[in-house]
Amino acid sequence: MSGSVLMRCDGGAAIGLGHVTRCLALADELRDSHRCVVAFAMRDPGSAGAAAVRSAGYDVVPIAADASSDYADELAALVAARHAAALVVDVRDQLSRASLDVLRTSGVRIVSVDDGSDRRLACDLAFYPPAPQVDEMEWSGFYGRRYAGWEWVMLRREFAAASFTPPELGESSPAIDILVTMGGSDPVGMTEFAVGALELLAMALAVRVVVGPAFSRAETLIDAIARSKHAIRVARAPESLAPLMRASRLAVASFGVSAYELAACGVPAVHLCLTADAGRTASIFEREGAAVNAGVFGHLTARQLCDAVGRLVGRAGERGRMAARAARLVDGRGAQRVAALVAAVIS
Q: Do 200 and 102 belong together in one domain?
């Protein structure tokens, strides 16, 4: 089949790149497996997120309205201009339910991604990770279909299920002892905090720090690395994260898309959460025995993070069990499943 799909998302230094990353995963499946024509509507065409979209081969059409206002007329005009059969919405702005209702009554299929606002009630399809908040939301007036769970997490193809056995911790192994990855921009400085916390570990380790394309505090990070007893290398906006993850025994990561990517790669992780709401979702990983939830950034000390990491560094068996459980939960094929459903509703 074929059809036109408009993706509405943003990404950059202030909000990170998670929304863009998962929308690109879906876009690739729609384009390559279902012959859909996909374009992205984005607020800042000069952002790192827009650059990633263009690099993947998609058109970026600008949204002029700022994040504080509804932009019903502008979005409707873009949908009409692209002859879009479906609109995928992955935003945290003032786009209203009423705006989506109007589009839906015109025949456009509306798809939402991890949306906690009442916009979700105007959607034909609504997708969520395995978050406890989903069942707690008010769903009266929703006539679409809701999908929530591990199988609906949208990741890029490089994270599709692959066998991976974490190596044992040992000086002779070339593997990365600890991978630090805090997303595409890390606006609050979790990377430097994690590097500082690792200094409290007794043993010197091989540490790889990933900084995304929108990371803006290079000098601060370089200073922290220069003072470290660990052998730290920096990977700046690597083309592919999966090989780095699969080469790691353990990760310290911001909770978000990276958490699911690490799980798909079979890497035990210690999660730092940006908000209490993210912490609730991260608790699902911990309950399943797939990761450790260290807590909310700004409410835990470097010593607390160090202790959480240290307990795993010294326990190869526990890391192995955690890695195996994580890989069973996330198979990396969520984007394929979502694309199939989107294609079906516009066929």
A: no
Q: How far is CA 229 from the centre of its chain?
A: 31
Sheet architecture: strand order including 109-113: 59-62, 37-42, 4-9, 86-90, 109-113, 125-128, 145-148
Helix (H) or strand (E) holding 99: helix 97-105
- Specify the number of domains making up the chain: 2
Residues 292 and 176 occupy one common structural domain = yes
Distance CA 223, CA 235 (A): 16
Angle, in degrees to the nearest 10, between helices 18-34 and 257-264: 60
- 3-state secondary structure at position 144: coil
Q: How many CB atoms lie within 10 A of CB 98?
A: 12
What distance in Å separates the CA atoms of residue 242 and residue 265, rounded to the nearest whole number? 7
Q: Do 132 and 175 sit in the same domain of this protein?
A: no
pLDDT by residue (tens digit) across 292-322? 999 999 999 999 999 999 999 989 999 999 9
Please state, in angstroms and rounded to a whole number, the distance separating the CA atoms of residues 113 and 148. Answer: 10
> Do 20 and 51 reside in the same domain of the chain?
yes
CATH number at 76 reads 3.40.50.11190
Taking the C-alpha atoms of 302, 307, 310 and 316 in order, what is their torsion angle to the nearest 10 degrees? -140
**In what order do the strands lie in the sheet containing 206-211?**
231-236, 206-211, 178-181, 251-254, 269-273, 292-296
H/E segment holding residue 147: strand 145-148
Domain harbouring 239, CATH code: 3.40.50.2000
Could you tell me the residue range of the domain that residue 185 belongs to? 161-329
- At 225-246, the pLDDT tens digits run 999 999 999 999 898 899 999 9
Residue 211 near residue 225, CB atoms below 8 Å: no
Q: Provide the whole-model pTM.
A: 0.92
Q: To which residue do tokens 């193809």 refer?
A: 157
In this structure, are 198 and 324 located in the same domain? yes
What are the distances in angstroms from CA 110 to CA 11, 136, 317? 21, 22, 45
| Pair 52, 92 in one domain | yes
